[in-house]
C-alpha cells in the first residue's frame, strides 16, 4: 500500500461465518462510505462469502463545487456528454484490481469474486470488470452507468470477462442518474459481452437508492454465481 491509498481507512468487512470460499467487493457511491453497504450486505449474507466494502479516498469533486468528499474519481457533470476524469477512473480501476489481487493472495480465486457497486461505485465496478485480466464471477451494478464508454471498441470485448454475468438494477424515478442512463448502459453491455448473461431490473417508484426487492435480487444473483463449494 503506497501513494494516496494511505488516506483511505481499511475497508468495512463482513466476514464469512465459516471458511471464506468466495468474496463480494462492493463500492459505495459518491460522498458515502463502505459502512452502510456492509450493513446492507450483512442482511443478505451467505455463510461462505466474505463481503468487502472499501472506502473511497477523499478528494475535491468538480460536480459539487470542488468540495472534498469520498469519491472514487472526479465527476465533472451528470449528462451523457459530460467530460470524464479518464486518468482518475483508470487509476481507481487499478486500485480495485489490487483489492481483487489481495483476495486472490488470501486464497479466494478471482472467478469466485463478484464485483459490485452503487452509483459511482457501480460505474467503477463495470469499468473494472470490462478492463481487467482477472476472470470474475459477476458484476452487480446498481443505479449507475458505464464510464468512458467511448473508449471501448464497437462490438464484443475480447477479454477474460466476455461471458461475465451482470445484474444491473435501476429505479424508474431516479433523479440523479436517470433510468435512461441505465437503459443506454445495458444496451452497450449487451453489445460487448454475451447478452444472455446481462439482466436489467427496474424498480417502480425507486429513486437514487436501494429497496428490499432489489437487495433480494442481489442476494439471488450472488447465491447463483457464488454457490458453496464444500
From TrEMBL:
One of its GO terms (cellular component) is plasma membrane. The keyword Methyltransferase does not apply. GO terms for biological process: fatty acid metabolic process. The keyword Membrane applies. Signal peptide: none annotated. Keywords: Acetylation, Cell membrane, Cytoplasm, Endoplasmic reticulum, Fatty acid metabolism, Hydrolase, Lipid metabolism, Membrane, Nucleus. It is found in: Cell membrane; Cytoplasm; Endoplasmic reticulum; Nucleus membrane. It is an enzyme of class 3 (hydrolase). InterPro entries: AB_hydrolase_fold (IPR029058), LYPA1-2/EST-like (IPR050565), PLipase/COase/thioEstase (IPR003140). Pfam families: Abhydrolase_2 (PF02230). It catalyses: 1-hexadecanoyl-sn-glycero-3-phosphocholine + H2O = sn-glycerol 3-phosphocholine + hexadecanoate + H(+); a 1-(9Z-octadecenoyl)-2-acyl-sn-glycero-3-phosphocholine + H2O = a 2-acyl-sn-glycero-3-phosphocholine + (9Z)-octadecenoate + H(+); S-hexadecanoyl-L-cysteinyl-[protein] + H2O = L-cysteinyl-[protein] + hexadecanoate + H(+). Residues 11-225 form the Phospholipase/carboxylesterase/thioesterase domain. One of its GO terms (molecular function) is carboxylic ester hydrolase activity. It comes from the Eukaryota. Its main location: membrane. Its EC number is 3.1.2.22. Homodimer. Acts as an acyl-protein thioesterase. Hydrolyzes fatty acids from S-acylated cysteine residues in proteins such as trimeric G alpha proteins or HRAS. Acts as a palmitoyl thioesterase that catalyzes depalmitoylation of proteins, such as ADRB2, KCNMA1 and SQSTM1. Acts as a negative regulator of autophagy by mediating palmitoylation of SQSTM1, decreasing affinity between SQSTM1 and ATG8 proteins and recruitment of ubiquitinated cargo proteins to autophagosomes. Acts as a lysophospholipase and hydrolyzes lysophosphatidylcholine (lyso-PC). Belongs to the AB hydrolase superfamily. AB hydrolase 2 family. This is Acyl-protein thioesterase 1. It comes from Heliornis fulica. The lineage of its organism: Eukaryota, Metazoa, Chordata, Craniata, Vertebrata.
Amino acid at each position: 500500500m503506497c501513494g494516496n491509498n494511505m488516506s483511505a481507512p481499511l475497508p468495512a468487512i463482513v466476514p464469512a461465518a465459516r471458511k471464506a470460499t468466495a468474496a463480494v467487493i462492493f463500492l459505495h457511491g459518491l460522498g458515502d462510505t463502505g459502512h452502510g453497504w456492509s450493513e446492507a450486505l450483512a442482511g443478505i449474507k451467505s455463510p461462505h462469502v466474505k463481503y468487502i466494502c472499501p472506502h473511497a479516498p477523499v478528494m475535491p469533486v468538480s460536480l459539487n463545487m470542488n468540495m472534498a468528499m469520498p469519491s472514487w474519481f472526479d465527476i465533472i457533470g451528470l449528462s451523457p456528454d459530460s467530460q470524464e476524469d479518464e486518468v482518475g477512473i483508470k487509476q481507481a480501476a487499478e486500485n480495485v484490481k489490487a483489492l481483487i489481487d489481495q483476495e486472490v493472495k488470501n486464497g479466494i480465486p478471482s472467478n469466485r469474486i463478484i464485483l459490485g457497486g452503487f452509483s459511482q461505485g457501480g460505474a467503477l465496478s463495470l469499468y473494472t470488470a470490462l478492463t481487467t485480466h482477472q476472470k470474475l464471477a459477476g458484476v452487480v451494478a446498481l443505479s449507475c452507468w458505464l464510464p468512458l464508454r467511448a473508449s471501448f471498441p464497437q462490438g464484443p470485448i475480447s477479454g477474460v470477462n466476455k461471458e461475465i454475468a451482470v445484474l444491473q438494477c435501476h429505479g424508474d424515478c431516479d433523479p440523479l442518474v436517470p433510468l435512461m442512463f441505465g437503459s443506454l448502459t445495458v444496451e452497450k453491455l449487451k453489445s460487448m459481452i454475451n447478452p444472455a448473461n446481462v439482466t436489467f431490473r427496474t424498480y417502480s417508484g425507486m429513486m437514487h437508492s436501494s429497496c428490499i426487492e432489489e437487495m433480494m435480487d442481489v442476494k439471488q444473483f450472488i447465491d447463483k454465481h457464488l454457490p458453496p463449494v464444500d
